[in-house]
Amino acid sequence: MALAEVLPGPISTSPASETGGTLTIDLNAVVSNWRALARLIRTAECAAVVKANAYGLGLEAVATKLAQAGCKTFFVADLAEARRLRLRTRDAAIYVLNGFSPDAGPGFIDIGARPVINSMTELAEWDAFVTEHNWHGGAALHVDTGMNRLGIPMDEAIALAPRVQTDNHGITLLMSHLACAEIADHPLTTSQIRSFKEIQSQFRGVPASLANSSGIFLGDPVYCDLVRPGAALYGINPLPGRPNPMQSVVELSGRILQVRKIDRGETVGYGASWTAKRPSRIAVVAIGYADGLPRVLSGVDASRNGVAIVGGKQCPFVGRISMDLICVDVTDLPDGAGHRGDIAAFIGAGISIDDIAARAGTIGYEILTHLGPRCHLVYRGA
Q: Is the pTM above the cut of 0.90?
């Protein structure tokens, strides 16, 4: 008997009912954040960093919306991301931050992407490649002003400066990266700005870029010709310790599978790490660390204990977060609120990405890029 004869025909279901969690991404908020930053700088072009799958939120959806809003320059991590991006942004300038390798060279020509040259070795390889293929697509030159990660050292970059006096020198952008822009008055930031201004003076006529999300809020000295916001576009606070000027972009919620009554002295979850100090009502929610909520937020250490919003109230996690489930104490909800099928909010409803990151002892970037790989995905403003 054929398999088609055994299996029933398709039955319509709600996509949200087929997953435990829902990740909602507000594309209009992404655009609003980009426009707010563009208005702030005014004198420079505002690009967009969409690496790491647009910080986990979907490169295609985010880049399409930003391109429609007028963004003309994008930064990605690698050529594979650049290929995906080019399908959605025909005319945009696309810079590949992880640089150039000869094996990947033909791909840059195929899609018209530009490598960010991070070393003298890469530059030599790039020059040889473009000469062989008569390619004039251009590249960015990344100068290390103090990050000590990728980038050409200052002295080597200064030695390259005469190159810009030649025809077809191929450098379409001079850039560096701030290491401590989010820390007000950090001495390294002052040093990096001074170093970049020095190197910029040697590359007259070449557009320059220094400011990342937090750098934009340092003002005119770092604006140059182009700024490169990333995290701020997605709602992460570029000004830690101060009010967040960006709109929230992400909401994460999970469905309550069951509400259990347990007695005082009973334990919850793996390792029996949490013990009820009173008769309690525990909501078991269909979301876990496989959905991007760090296990360190388990209801074991009070200083890092995660919370969810159920019935409009904050409710603490109890027991260890497991792969697919989180247990939440709903004992104190009024009138016994919190039932099977209700929704618990883990991001949104007053809980931000940065709130979770602070509790987990990490940064919003890490939280954001790990969210919702198997959740039902909802785009607002698509």
A: yes
* Both structure tokens of 234: 């997605």
Q: How many CB atoms lie within 10 A of CB 64?
A: 17
Two tokens, residue 74: 């994008």
CA gap 302, 344 in Å, rounded:
20
Q: How far is CA 374 from the centre of its chain?
A: 17
Give Cβ neighbours of residue 285 (< 8 Å, ≥ 6 apart).
20, 254, 255, 256, 257, 308, 325, 326, 327, 328, 344
Which residues, in sequence order, are CB contacts of 129 under 8 Å at separation 6+? 100, 102, 105, 135
Q: Are strands 114-117 and 93-96 parallel, antiparallel or unpaired?
A: parallel
In the chain the domains, ranked by start, together with CATH numbers, are 43-234 (3.20.20.10), 250-380 (2.40.37.10)
Return the bridge partners of 255, or none.
Answer: 343
pLDDT in tens, the chain (382 residues): 455 555 565 655 557 778 889 999 999 999 999 999 999 998 899 999 999 999 999 999 999 999 999 999 999 999 999 999 999 999 999 999 999 999 999 999 999 999 999 999 999 999 999 999 999 889 999 999 999 999 999 999 999 999 888 878 899 999 999 999 998 789 999 999 999 999 999 999 999 999 999 999 998 889 999 999 999 999 999 999 999 999 999 999 999 999 999 999 999 999 999 999 999 999 999 999 999 999 999 977 667 789 999 999 999 999 999 999 999 999 999 877 899 999 999 999 899 999 999 999 999 999 999 998 899 999 999 8
Residue of 72, 234, 270, 277 marked catalytic = 270
How far is the C-alpha of 213 from the C-alpha of 37, rounded, in Å? 9
Question: Measured at the alpha carbon of residue 64, what is the angle toward residues 80 and 130, in degrees to the nearest 5?
Answer: 40
- 51 given a catalytic annotation: yes
- Residue pair 25/57 in contact by the 8 Å Cβ criterion: yes
Task: For residue 379, indicate whether it is catalytic.
Answer: no
Which of 129, 219, 228, 100 lies closest to 174 in space, CA to CA? 228
Residue 237 and residue 363 in contact, taking contact as beta carbons nearer than 8 Å: no
Residue of 51, 55, 65, 234 marked active site = 51
- Region of 336 please: left (phi>0), alpha (psi -120 to 50) or beta: left
What values do phi and psi take at 26, rounded to 5? Answer: -95, 100
